[in-house]
């Protein structure tokens, strides 16, 4: 684990670090942009369903990973299936991070910097990318986590400040609610092209299970917890803080729609940066810009750290150089950091083209190639102990292929429905392989006998409070 911290992080640091890594300009630009466009308040479902999901994962899935003593998610697949499953997931993860996630963060950061300073988009992207690569290479995850403690709180405070200033600009809550009466609903009809309720109850749960429970980008913080309770409370704290996202990010997007109207045109991703530029006084604008910049660098650092860790530990050391020394692994990780950032900086400016439908949609839609197969492989492997190695490998190969077929031959079907269908078909394939050739003996994860996995009452009550908050929000804005 060349960029690790050891297991020493306390729960407040874990929770705020997850929030800072998750809520960056791809949310402040992309999610606010979708709110300003056709989706409205309903785009909040991504974070609110995530709040419920991360609580459930903290109660159930995460303790099992910690007990197994693993450092990366591909490592789990080797324990459960075989080495081929590990390298397949590692390769898929590195590709998605390098070709989708990193370019999206760089593009949204670049759009913000361009709106605020007038810099050319390409120059802004390369400036952010260079700083992010240096920060990751020199700092490591522990430095990233402690910086997140300040940046994460500043980002949420900054977003809430923009919301307050925006409400004042449009004449208060009553005027805001009257203007957006048709867009303040969490549940949209099944015919809605952007976010139908059928997608939320089906494919979105698969997405959340991957993102909160199987995604190295998020899980690396939980695996660095100093205790089981710290990891669980940190995840639940993140879920609680995500309840602020509708107010700090989504509603400001709606306010931008009210203030700027057609000025946004076919570039709704400009919504949040325009609010910062036009509504925030100069002194406070510097505070918010610093928070946004910190969030961009934090997210880039987390993604780059994940790419370097997975590529170094699960591909380079496992397959190419098993006897590599620790210094060699560190330098390999640094080289991969620079390479990944270079590729991402070259891709990012292309995302401005209208065909991508906004950065938030780009992120979600293209990650569909990894969600169905990976989630099926993990869930089936945990629940069906006699599933053979061939079932896991098949899931990781079939998932991207099936989703790609839906994307090509059924483009009118919402991508979350496509994710759910691909996931169901992968599970069917895994079931057939297990019935055909089940393992002679159940395959179980290794266990660390020194860990006490009993759940504390504080973890239980905190989790239920978060779930109750989500339920209230859905009912209030049904």
What is the CATH topology assignment? Answer: Sodium/glucose cotransporter
State the secondary-structure class. Answer: mainly alpha
Number of domains: 1
Number of helices: 21
Q: CATH homologous superfamily, by name?
A: Sodium/glucose cotransporter
CATH class, anyone?
A: Mainly Alpha
Portion of residues in helices?
Answer: over 70%
Assembly of the depicted chains: single chain
Strand content: under 5%
Distance between the termini: 45 Å
State mean pLDDT (0 to 100 scale): 84
Shape summary: globular
Question: How would you portray this structure in words?
Answer:
- This protein has a single domain, classed as Up-down Bundle (Sodium/glucose cotransporter).
- The relative contact order is 0.20.
- It has 21 helices and no strands.
- The N terminus is likely disordered.
- The protein is mainly α and 478 residues long.
- Helix 1 crosses helix 7 and helix 5 runs antiparallel to helix 6.
Descriptive terms for the model:
Sodium/glucose cotransporter; mainly alpha; 21 helices; disordered N terminus; 478 residues; 0% strand
